[in-house]
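Please study the protein below:
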Amino acid sequence: MKFSEHTRTITIEIICLLYIVLFVYAAASKLLDFENFQVQLGQSPLLSAFAGWVSWGVPISELVISLLLIFRRYRLVGLYAAFGIMVMFTSYIVIILNFSSFVPCSCGGILEKLSWTEHLFFNVIFIALAFIGILLIKADKGTGSGIRVPILVTTICSSACVFGLFLLSEDMIHNRNNFIRRFPNHLALLTNEFNLKYTSYYIAGLDQSTIYLANVKAPLQLTLIDTSLQRQEIITIKLPKTDFVFRSVKVQVKPPYFYVSDGTVPCIFRGKVSDWKASLWMHGKAYFTHMEPVTPKKVAIRALSSKNHENILGTIDFQDNVEVHVSDELLEKQIDGVFDTDGMLLYNDKLRKLIYTYYYRNEYLLVDDLLRLESVGKTIDTTSKAKITVAYINSRKESKMASPPFSVNKNTATFGNYLFVQASLIGKYESFEMWDVASIVDVYDVVKKTYVFSFYISDKNAVKMSEFRVLDDLVVVLSGKYLSTYRLNNRFYENK
């Protein structure tokens, strides 16, 4: 189809104007909230290692391209540059959608409200507009036949640039530790599977006969499933009426009692599993970010110190009056005292000890219920200092992770003398193929402070294990909407 000169001119003007509005608006949004934009880029697994110069390069490039599009003499160059940068943005989104589990939007302004799929279609439309603009300008100059090679070269170079940055960033961020695991054959054998149909469940407790599942979508509803995964029962917890504004309700079952807590209120309800009726046990004594039942008269907590706002461990004792005890000496600060000391709190009934495992370093603590440190154990990787970057955004008065944290330990469970740790890092001489289709659990003897063995838990429908519990030789696993049970081979594992 041939266009008149007037139509071509108007179309080119509209395309250039749309790009100018888009790029000036996007650049201004990034620069006006630059701190947050830089932190968001740092959280991207694609560009973490290059967040510093990319955070400046992108808005500057957008403004330079806008200037080129203003002047007719440079519009062809500007449209090629616009085409190239939109191809780069689109390649970025393709990688996000296919290779990343999360990435906050880094666009700013109203574009931040678009989903990644919507953003992809938006970009494709603007790529098409740039292509049309280039075609019309080349036709206007009588050189329309020479567009294929430059467009192809621009597309390939732009895509290759993004994919190259992605590969380089991944290589720089995810370095393997120099450690070796042992995998006894047939250690963990799958026994049963159950499709829960929803992914909103978490394990609230476990005993010899029953798995207790709570649901974040229905906080007071419990699903009870026998350990053979053959029978289930749904019950509803009854709480007394209060005017509490709940934000983070968690249910924990430790027969004969169950607990309903919310550290943001703060409150703890307790009741018996015989009737599932709870009464208010504690209110207003101590805010906490995690609570772990210890004995029928005591719970352990992790909280933020009122003095320095750093993580601390404590207990709440219900013997006579409600008494709160805290220790600000147990958790070792390396960077900020919050993110770097983040971890998982467990209570081991056999040893009568608290176990606190850090997320971002190769260390766990064994603590008695009087908050006295008994020992410090090491996991088998070599990350002794948390590899995290924390940014404080003045405009928002909040701290954020400025880049994806280098996670060491994902989830933990404990039974007998053992600590079970779902690992985040691949070891030396291990199969990348197995790492892609299974989770690895490392087992430690916390009494001897030794590494014992490791075993695999296979993914379910490409979904990795999100949570697990251990009782005797039974391992209960949640992977998305699937509940599975495994049995550990007692030849390698002494569970009594």
